[in-house]
Design goal:
single chain; alpha/beta; Aspartate Aminotransferase, domain 1; Aspartate Aminotransferase, domain 2; 2 domains; seven-stranded mixed sheet; four-stranded mixed sheet; about 15% strand; binds pyridoxal-5'-phosphate
Length: about 425
């Protein structure tokens, strides 16, 4: 630590910081280092991390292999503009991703955040239809409970009622909104909607298997098969937003593997770099990418952020993929899932608890009211758990050990029980 004491920087800097999703001056805990599943605070105390950097730090914090790769890259080339210049970490990563992701994905566009990777996916869809002589196909369809980012175009895809962007209604044209097709009635309704709007629809976008920020709502893989079938029937592209679910979180490397139904365009971020540096990727299947091998004016993808394909982030991502190859992350996710299911079970049936659900390394206790008010109860128990909306949830690093995970689950059981008793 250099310069002023941590308590000083927190206080003095706090009047300059604009915090996310919070009022000015909102309190934050001062983290001075992190390692494995532990965050160390300025007073020397430790928190076991149940959130993993907003669901991204799959290998834990400061993994030595990622640190080494980033340090080596920092010595050589931290960053270089990506137009007209190339570097090995990005080219190697693109090739590895096209080989790793099931189906015939053939092109990768790198950006620096999940939201922007979704925006790029939208542009690919729009330009694809322009090249195909269908510039009228320029609308999108998304689902109730969905979340795809905070930028203006991605907000238009979020659930307008329940998403955190309700206040911006009217600022942009919202996407067509549908219920996820989970039964014959909703499938028929979506079929009808697609049939009415196919002439103007560029793509359907969905989070496969789990709608994350919408409240960790889980659904069956068959729904993705229905979406694939309906999009094919109506000539609409399908985008899977695996920004949250990608890289093992649902128990398979990519959630859509469980459905055996691939999208046309895929968005990845978060755990792509092991949760260490900002990086995102938008992948297109071969038929989509090949349409861009044309001299049509729209065959030049109109995007190119300054920090795209940052070399440090790509080095981190390559090291993260090495770890997935070397270490049993998917087995770890399965073990976490079994432990979450067993240890969160005592919450089920408590007054005020609507349900307990688990998928892969995601465990959720849903309450019958807002859970934000419980946030302050967790750090004193030595854990970092951050309820939102009506859920208290865990998405720990996939490397977490049994004892540490039990500390997290028992904290949830303790807090939820006390809350449940206190409400009556
Ligand atoms: N899409 C999904 C499914 C997400 O969960 C998120 C972030 O939580 C995003 C998009 C936006 O990613 P970012 O916060 O990196 O812009």
């Amino acid at each position: 630590m250099t310069g002023s004491k941590p308590a000083d920087w927190l206080k003095t800097g706090g009047s300059s910081i604009w915090p996310p999703y919070a009022r000015l001056g909102a309190e934050a805990l001062p983290v001075v280092s992190a390692s494995g599943v532990r965050l160390t605070l300025a007073d020397g105390s430790e928190l076991i991390d149940g959130v993993a950097n907003w669901w991204s730090a799959c290998h834990g914090h400061a993994h030595p292999a990622i640190r080494a790769a980033v340090s080596a890259q920092l010595e050589r080339l931290p960053h270089v503009m990506f137009a007209g210049l190339a570097h090995e970490p990005a080219y190697r990563l693109a090739q590895r991703l096209t080989a790793l992701v099931p189906s015939d994905f053939s092109r990768v566009f790198f950006t620096e955040s999940g939201s922007v990777s979704v925006e790029v996916g939208l542009k690919i869809a729009l330009q694809y239809w322009m090249i195909a002589g269908r510039p009228d196909k320029r609308r999108f369809l998304s689902f109730r409970g969905g979340y795809h980012g905070d930028t203006l175009a991605t907000m238009a895809l979020c659930d307008p009622e329940e998403g955190m962007h309700a206040m911006f209604q009217g600022v942009f044209t919202p996407a067509l909104l549908a219920d996820l097709p989970q039964d014959a009635r909703s499938e028929a309704a979506l079929d009808g909607l697609l049939s009415t709007h196919a002439h103007e629809l560029a793509a359907v976008i969905v989070e496969p298997l789990v709608q994350g920020a919408g409240g960790m709502r889980m659904y069956a893989p068959q729904t993705l098969q229905v979406l694939r079938r309906l999009c094919d029937r109506h000539g609409v592209l399908l985008i899977f937003d695996e920004i949250f679910t990608g890289f093992g979180r649902t128990g398979t490397m990519f959630a859509f593997e469980q459905a055996g139904a691939a999208p046309d365009i895929l968005c990845l971020s978060k755990a792509l770099s092991g949760g260490t540096l900002p990086l995102a990727a938008t992948l297109a299947r071969r038929p989509i990418a090949e349409a861009f091998a044309s001299d049509h004016p729209a065959a030049v993808l109109m995007h190119g952020p300054t920090y795209m394909a940052n070399a440090l982030a790509c080095a981190a991502a390559n090291a993260s993929l090495d770890l997935f190859e070397r270490e049993p992350r998917l087995e770890q996710a399965a073990r976490i899932g079994a432990q979450l299911a067993a240890e969160l079970e005592p919450c089920r049936g408590l007054p005020g608890v609507v349900g307990v659900r688990v998928m892969g390394a995601i465990g959720v206790v849903q309450l019958d009211q807002d859970a934000d008010g419980l946030r302050g109860r967790f750090p004193p128990l030595g854990v970092w758990i951050r309820p939102f909306r009506d859920i208290v949830y865990l998405t720990p690093p996939l490397v977490i050990g049994e004892a540490d995970l039990s500390r997290l689950t028992s904290a949830i059981v303790q807090v939820v029980k006390a809350w449940s008793e206190g409400r009556s």
